[in-house]
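During the practical work, I worked with a single protein chain and the tokens that describe its fold, as given directly below.
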Amino acid sequence: MSNATIWWGGQRPPLEPMTGLGQNALPGHLGIEFVDCGDDWIRARMPVDHRTHQLFGRLHGGASVALAETIGSVASAYCIDREKFVAVGMEINANHIRPAYSGWVHATAQPESLGRTTQVWTIRITDEADKLVCISRLTVAVIPAERK
């Protein structure tokens, strides 16, 4: 990606409304919060607790994927003219590298490609020691708003 900002309108998006978007949906139930943003990346965090554990007390792989799709989808939406287009997930994959048991995991999304109709994002999820927990790739379709 270039050194210029990727965000629509040339301004970094506000984080608080991003967190608020998911308040009454899956991201809110999982405790996902958007915490930081740069010219070509965005970061969110999610607690590793009873909401996100699997049966054996580890972070559930599905929770990691939900975090990855949430941050990638929201980031995609802030890279397009939201009055004319919407960003919808097409495909996501994830490699679960190591377990997390408690605390927070942090996801950082960066675009690999920001095309006119398709975006590809890499999302790295790390634990509080900055060790890689999961790496994911999300493909997003950019469609006209009237098709949503």
Remarks:
- Strands lie at 33-37, 42-47, 85-96, 104-114, 118-126, 132-144.
- The longest helix spans residues 61-77.
- The mean pLDDT is 95.
